[in-house]
Amino acid sequence: MLHGRALRYIDEVARQGSIRRAAKELNVAASAINRHILELEEEMGAPLFERMPRGLKLTSPGEILVAHIRDTLRAHEKMKAEIAGLRGLSHGRVTVATMSTLASGRLAGVVAAFREAHPHVELELTVSDRGGVMDLVAGGGAEIALAYNLPQDPRLARVAEYQHRLGAVVAPDHPLTAKASVRVSDCLIYPMVLAPRGISLREAVEALAPAHAAIEPMVETNSMELMKRLTRRAPHVAFLNRVDIDQELRDGDLAFLPLQGAAGRQRLTLVHRARGTLSPAASRFIQVIETHFGRPETVPVREDISGAVPDQKNGKNE
After folding, report:
1. N or C: at which end does the chain have fewer Cβ atoms within 10 angstroms?
2. Residue ranges of domains in the chain
3. Continuous segment of H or E residues that includes residue 316
4. pLDDT-based confidence at 86, cuts 50/70/90?
């Protein structure tokens, strides 16, 4: 029968690849950890670790056991968070998967608001690409995810979906600011700062570019802060969502020129794992997300019978 202490011992040995390093990390005697491993191997009737010259390596039975242990530990943490939720969210933990542009942009305001309201609830944010975000939630590595252009996936349940307007971001004195909106082709003559290939921002820009157009960025980066810093000086051009530069627009540091056409939008999707229930802390964090992203520039997706997605502002279609 596995007990909580043995679970953590074996999980840490698997992570460290060494009983000695695990003992140091857990601040327990190496002999105690070794005893638990030997007892469990005897109970299972199979070796859990292969003894190598430079440490320990999981055997096939060991991999199965460690996967079970990690599921059990996650379930235990979730249970503790749910109990804490019954005490008014005085404690708990929320794990969130997201994309780099969101983590360094609007989501930071969500985190600040949540922390102010619930200072004793721990937050863990993991940044990944679209596939990584989906896998983290589906595999139990994160309770919820906020990401752009997530495809339908039976492993995930959608909580909310919004449209964000995509546009060219430039300095206030850039020549392009003479236009109310632009096409990607208007921007090709200027040095561009783009996200790497495989990132949703880059995919959206390339989809809007003229056929056979050469998309050759002067700078390629997944850092939204670097994009903003470079475009503060003309003639650089970056492509970001309107919500990514809220503060810079208010301060007058940057200008935003919407990209023409319905394709110049991205869908922001909030999801959680389809199976199981959310902890009270995660449910509250979702509420804060919905509050912060449900502003005029962020519109819930509602498709009409023709399949078009209306953009609303002050209750009217543009």
Report:
1. N
2. 4-73, 83-159+267-297, 163-265
3. strand 316-317
4. low
Share of the chain above pLDDT 90, in %: 28
Tell me if residue 80 falls in helix, strand or coil: helix
Band (246; pLDDT cuts 50, 70, 90): confident
Which residues have CB under 8 Å from 229's CB, separation 6+?
none
pLDDT score of 314 more than 70: no
Answer CATH for 4-73 from 3.40.50.150, 1.25.40.880, 1.10.10.10, 2.60.40.3450: 1.10.10.10
Q: What distances in angstroms separate CA 188 from CA 169, 224, 231, 236, one per listed residue?
A: 13, 20, 15, 10
Alpha helices (H) in the chain, listed in sequence order: 4-16, 19-26, 30-44, 60-85, 100-103, 106-117, 130-138, 184-187, 200-208, 224-231, 246-251, 280-293
Q: Is 199 left (phi over 0), alpha (psi -120 to 50) or beta?
A: beta
* CATH of range 83-159+267-297; options 3.90.226.10, 3.40.50.720, 1.10.3720.10, 3.40.190.10: 3.40.190.10
The domain covering 163-265 belongs, at the CATH homologous superfamily level, to Periplasmic binding protein-like II (3.40.190.10)
Domains 83-159+267-297 and 163-265 share a fold: yes
Residue range 10-23: mean pLDDT, rounded: 90
Token pair for residue 210? 């003229």
**Structural contact between residues 178 and 265, judged by C-beta atoms closer than 8 angstroms:** no
Q: Are 210 and 185 in contact (CB under 8 A)?
A: yes
Average pLDDT over residues 152-164: 88
Q: Where are the alpha helices (DSSP H) in 157-199?
A: 184-187
Q: Indicate the average pLDDT of the chain.
A: 82
Measured CA to CA in angstroms, residue 73 lies from 7, 137, 274, 292, 300 at distances of: 8, 16, 20, 32, 36
**Structure confidence at residue 156 (pLDDT):** 92
- 275: confidence class by pLDDT, cuts 50, 70, 90: confident
* pLDDT above 60 for 237: yes
